[in-house]
UniProtKB/TrEMBL annotation, chain A:
Protein name: Cell division transport system ATP-binding protein
Pfam family, one: ABC_tran
GO terms under biological process: cell division
Organism: Sulfitobacter litoralis
Alphabetized UniProt keyword annotations: ATP-binding, Cell cycle, Cell division, Nucleotide-binding
Database matches in InterPro entries: AAA+_ATPase, ABC_transporter-like_ATP-bd, ABC_transporter-like_CS, ABC_transpr_LolD-like, P-loop_NTPase
GO molecular function (one): ATP binding
Keyword Acetylation assigned: no
ABC transporter domain span: 28-247
SMART domains: AAA
Superkingdom in the source lineage: Bacteria
Automatic annotation (TrEMBL), chain B:
GO cellular component terms, semicolon-separated: cell division site; plasma membrane
Single Gene Ontology BP annotation: cell division
Keywords for the protein's UniProt record, in alphabetical order: Cell membrane, Membrane, Transmembrane, Transmembrane helix
Matching InterPro entries: ABC3_permease_C (IPR003838), FtsX (IPR004513)
Species, as recorded: marine sediment metagenome
Transmembrane in keyword set: yes
Stretches that traverse the bilayer: 30-52, 176-197, 203-221, 233-251, 271-293
Signal sequence, renumbered to the chain: none
Localization annotation: Cell membrane
Domain ABC3 transporter permease C-terminal: 180-298
Keyword Transmembrane helix carried by entry: yes
Protein name: ABC3 transporter permease C-terminal domain-containing protein
Topology of this chain in the membrane: Multi-pass membrane protein
C-alpha cells in the first residue's frame, strides 16, 4: 500500500498547535478515566496508554463498555472523570473543530460501518478527503490504489446497501485509512463476516501496523486475537466490571 | 464568525462535493421553493401598497396643501360681480400664485356624475368656484377670510385642511401597514426556512454523525445546508417576485379608471425596488439556516 507507506496522504499541515507523533509520545492516554451515563457508571478508573506503532486488542463481554471506551478514544464521548489525552491534548479542553481535526488523524471502523447510503462506495471511502478539502489535491490515484488494496476496485460505483458484510467492513477500513491516520480504531471489525473474510481484514490491519500505525481493535473473537499474536506483538486489554483488568497481560 | 465566513465563501464559490454529502430532499426542497415564491409574491404587493400609499400621502400632504377653493354663494344676478370682487382681492393677496374662476363647462363636468351632462348650470343657484394655487411659502388663509368676509360676503374660503388631514393620516397609516406587512412576510419566511432547515438537519442526523466521524467540522456540515436553503430561497423568491411584478403590470392603469386602487403599483425608479426581495429572501434564509444549523449541531454534539 504505497500511498499509506510513503505518507502521500499525510496532512501537510496539522491543526492549531502542530502536533507531531514522536516515538516517545502516547498517541492516546487515559488517566483514571470514568464514564457515566443515565446515573450508571459504565467505565471506572481506566488508565491506559497507547504508544505509536503499537497493536492492542480490547476484549470483554458484551455490554462491558468496549464501544464506549473506543468512542472516548476519538472524542465522540467525553469522560465524566479523569483525563483523556489525544496526541498530547486533553480532549476536554478542545473545541469541537479541534476534535474534528483529531478525527482526521484517527481512522475509525465501526461494526455497523456507517456510510452515506446515497453516495457510491468510492465517494464514501474518499469522504475524509472531501471534508478536509483535499479531494482535488490528492486526485483519484490514491483512492484507486486504496480500493485495490481492500479488493473493492470492481465495487467502486456500488452503493453501500448493495455491498456484502465483508465488503462493507473493507470499505470502512479503506475510509478509515485514506487520510493516512496515526491511529486505526476498529470496533468488532469481524463481527459480521465469515472466518475467511475476518482473516483478510486482519491481514490488512496487521499490514497497517507494520507501516507504523497504532491499531486498537475491540473484539471478543479470541481466534482473531490468537491469529494476530502469531503475526505481530499485540497487547490485550480486557474490560470487566467497568475496569481494565488484564492490561498488559498476554492472553 | 468562522462558520459565517466559510459559509459565505462556500455560497459564493460553490462546492459540488460538499453539496453531495447531504442527500437531496425533493419534497422539502419544493416546499421551501414554494414558500419563498409565495412570500416574495406577497412582498411585492406589500411593497406596492406601501409605495403607493407614500405617493398618496405626499400628494395629499404636499401638493393639495398648496391649493384652496373659494365658493361664491350668491343670487344668480350677483354671482358674477362677487366672483370678480373675490378675484381682485386674490390678485393683491400675498402668497397666491394663480387664481381663476372655473368655467361653466368645468363646473358642469364636476356635477355631471350626479346631475348628468345636460345640466343647465345657469338656471341653478350653483356656487361659482375659484381655484387658488398658492406659492411655496403659502398664503395667510385667516387674513384672506377676513378680507373676503368684509368685501365679498358670499365668498367662503376652503383650504381643504378639514378633509385633507384625515386622508394624509390614513395614507401614512397605510404606508406603515405596508412596511409592517413586509416585515411580517420576511419574518414568516425566516420561520419557514428555520423549520425546514431544522427538519432537514434532524432527518440527516445519521449523515451528520458519519461526517463527524470522518473529521468534518461543524462549519463544513453547516455550509452544505446553508448553501442549499439559501439558493432555494433565492430561486423561489426570484420566481415569486417575477410573478408579483407581472401581476402589478397587469393591474388596470390609472388612465383607465382613476382612483387609489388603480394607482397601486410602481412608478419610475420604484420598479427597481422589488428586485431587492430575492436577495433579501436569500439573506434571510442564509441567516436562518445558519442559526438553525449551529443550534442543531450543538445539540447533536
Amino acid at each position: 500500500m504505497q500511498c499509506l507507506r510513503r505518507g502521500a496522504l499525510k496532512p501537510k499541515r496539522c491543526w492549531g498547535t502542530t502536533v507531531q507523533t514522536k516515538r516517545d509520545m502516547r498517541v492516546i492516554e487515559f488517566e483514571n478515566v470514568a464514564y457515566s451515563y443515565g446515573g450508571g457508571e459504565l467505565l471506572s478508573d481506566i488508565s491506559v496508554k497507547l504508544a505509536p506503532g503499537s497493536f492492542h486488542f480490547l476484549t470483554g463481554p458484551s455490554g462491558s463498555g468496549k464501544t464506549t471506551l473506543m468512542k472516548l478514544c476519538y472524542g465522540a464521548l467525553l469522560p465524566t472523570a479523569g483525563h483523556v489525552s489525544l496526541f498530547g491534548k486533553d480532549v476536554r479542553t478542545m473545541e469541537r473543530d479541534d476534535i474534528a481535526m483529531i478525527r482526521r488523524r484517527v481512522g475509525v471502523v465501526h461494526q455497523d460501518c456507517q456510510f452515506l447510503n446515497h453516495l457510491p462506495v468510492a465517494e464514501n471511502i474518499g469522504l475524509p478527503l472531501t471534508v478536509s478539502g483535499r479531494h482535488a489535491e490528492t486526485g483519484g490515484e490514491d483512492l484507486q490504489e486504496l480500493l485495490s488494496w481492500v479488493g473493492l476496485s470492481s465495487r467502486a460505483d456500488a452503493l453501500p446497501p448493495e455491498l456484502s458484510g465483508g465488503e462493507r467492513q473493507r470499505a470502512a477500513l479503506a475510509r478509515a485509512v485514506i487520510m493516512s491516520p496515526d491511529v486505526v480504531l476498529a470496533d468488532e471489525p469481524t463481527g459480521n463476516v465469515d472466518w475467511e473474510m475476518s482473516q483478510r481484514l486482519l491481514r490488512l490491519l496487521v499490514e497497517l501496523n507494520r507501516m507504523g500505525k497504532t491499531v486498537l481493535i475491540a473484539t471478543h473473537d479470541l481466534g482473531l486475537i490468537r491469529a494476530t499474536k502469531a503475526q505481530v506483538q499485540a497487547r490485550v486489554l480486557r474490560i470487566a466490571n467497568r475496569r481494565i483488568q488484564l492490561a498488559g497481560a498476554d492472553l | 464568525m468562522k462558520m459565517l465566513r466559510i459559509a459565505l465563501a462556500s455560497l459564493w464559490n460553490g462546492d459540488r462535493q460538499a453539496d453531495r454529502v447531504v442527500p437531496p430532499s425533493g419534497f422539502t426542497a419544493q416546499l421551501t421553493l414554494f414558500a419563498a415564491a409565495t412570500m416574495a409574491f406577497l412582498a411585492v404587493f406589500a411593497l406596492a401598497l406601501s409605495l403607493a400609499s407614500g405617493r398618496l400621502a405626499h400628494i395629499w400632504g404636499q401638493e393639495l396643501a398648496r391649493t384652496a377653493t373659494i365658493r361664491v354663494v350668491a343670487p344668480i344676478d350677483q354671482r358674477s360681480a362677487q366672483t370678480d370682487a373675490a378675484l381682485r382681492i386674490l390678485e393683491t393677496t400675498k402668497g397666491v400664485a394663480t387664481a381663476r374662476a372655473l368655467t361653466d363647462e368645468e363646473q358642469q363636468s364636476l356635477l355631471a356624475p350626479w346631475f348628468g351632462p345636460e345640466l343647465a348650470i345657469d338656471a341653478l343657484p350653483v356656487p361659482r368656484l375659484i381655484e387658488i394655487i398658492e406659492e411655496d411659502d403659502g398664503m395667510d388663509a385667516d387674513g384672506l377670510r377676513l378680507r373676503l368676509a368684509a368685501e365679498v360676503p358670499g365668498a367662503v374660503l376652503d383650504n381643504h385642511s378639514r378633509w385633507r388631514a384625515p386622508l394624509v393620516k390614513a395614507a401614512s397609516r397605510l404606508k406603515l401597514l405596508g412596511w409592517v406587512s413586509m416585515t411580517l412576510i420576511i419574518a414568516t419566511l425566516a420561520a419557514m426556512v428555520t423549520l425546514a432547515a431544522n427538519a432537514a438537519l434532524s432527518a440527516n442526523a445519521q449523515v451528520i454523525a458519519v461526517l463527524r466521524l470522518v473529521g468534518a467540522t461543524d462549519s463544513y456540515i453547516a455550509q452544505a445546508f446553508i448553501r442549499r436553503f439559501t439558493l432555494r430561497a433565492l430561486t423561489g423568491a426570484a420566481a415569486g417576485t417575477g410573478l408579483g411584478l407581472l401581476a402589478i403590470l397587469l393591474l388596470p392603469s390609472t388612465a383607465d379608471a382613476g382612483g387609489f386602487l388603480t394607482g397601486l403599483g410602481f412608478q419610475g425608479w420604484h420598479w427597481i425596488v422589488p428586485l431587492v426581495i430575492p436577495f433579501l429572501s436569500g439573506g434571510v434564509a442564509f441567516v436562518a439556516t445558519g442559526a438553525a444549523a449551529r443550534r442543531t449541531l450543538k445539540d447533536l454534539a
